[in-house]
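Students often ask what a holo structure prediction actually looks like on paper. The answer is less mysterious than it sounds. You provide the chain, you provide the ligand, and the output is a string of discrete structure tokens encoding the 3D arrangement of the protein together with adenosine-5'-diphosphate.
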Amino acid sequence: MAPTNRRARFALLTGPSGVGKGTLVARLLERHPQLWLSVSATTRAPREGEQDGVHYFFHSRESFDQLVSEGGLLEWAEFAGNCYGTPKQPVMERLELGTPVLLEIELEGARQVRRSFPEALQIFLAPPSFKELEQRIRGRGTEMEAAIAKRLDRARTELQAQQEFDAVVINDDLETALIDLERLMELAEA
Ligand code: ADP
Ligand code: 5GP
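The corresponding structure tokens follow.
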């Protein structure tokens, strides 16, 4: 069933690194194959198992700058020393077709989208506590200590901005958070 709410056709998920965005988005895509997730461009190095064009489009700083100067990104921002951005054309094509679109991006990008697409539903994913966030980001084991420190530092700013969003979902119990997201995005049972 197509979402009845226009806003639900374009949703954006933001939240501090390690809160569980990737985990929840993967579950959402499994359960709702009609949902389309934008694949971002980044200058960050691939993590083990990450594939170019699947998890991200991996770019050098030069080719990322080129994308920016060509106007190829819908939004972009620097996060913990790397650049991240949403390729514009694939999103515009999906919106045109009426496909439900999901972006998983950080705070500065969310603010840019709020200006350019005020109709997009903006969801903030919050951890049950800062301590739990720290445990999750360390437990994931994908970053070195310096990168973890940068991400946790940025997390404090991001958490303070949660009231700017249309809705806040707390990712304590994963299944409950998943159901909350499905309700907000008006995703029908698979
Ligand atoms: P993000 O994409 O926001 O950076 P991830 O999805 O990579 O976060 O999750 C970070 C870590 O937290 C992962 O190891 C993941 O398995 C774990 N995690 C995610 N959601 C929960 C949850 N509800 N309870 C406990 N651990 C979780
Ligand atoms: P990670 O390096 O953990 O994959 O992502 C770091 C941060 O960048 C996360 O908060 C993630 O949501 C954000 N991010 C991923 N893609 C984009 C994007 O296209 N634009 C913006 N602004 N942020 C992004």
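The longest strand covers residues 73-79.
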